Amino acid sequence: VGVRTEKQYKELFTDLKALHFIHITNGTWDASFWLGFDLRKKGLTIPATDILIATAAIESGCMVLHSDHHFDLISKHSNLTAKRV
User: Which 3 state secondary structure label does DSSP give 81?
Assistant: First the structure.
């Protein structure tokens, strides 16, 4: 989505193919619902996509490298390990 030329697309596609996939299970969805509910009780409104990413990372023991302040907020109120890049 973030590219304008075919050359940029090919470069991004190559980079993204090198990434590992984290499987989303029914349990991941359930845990993300709970995390979103818990964050909302604390006065935080976080996009559902960010909550799902954070939940999958927590379950997989992965660190989220990000440039989105929502992950900083999630990490302050959960077991998410996140690093702004």
Answer: strand
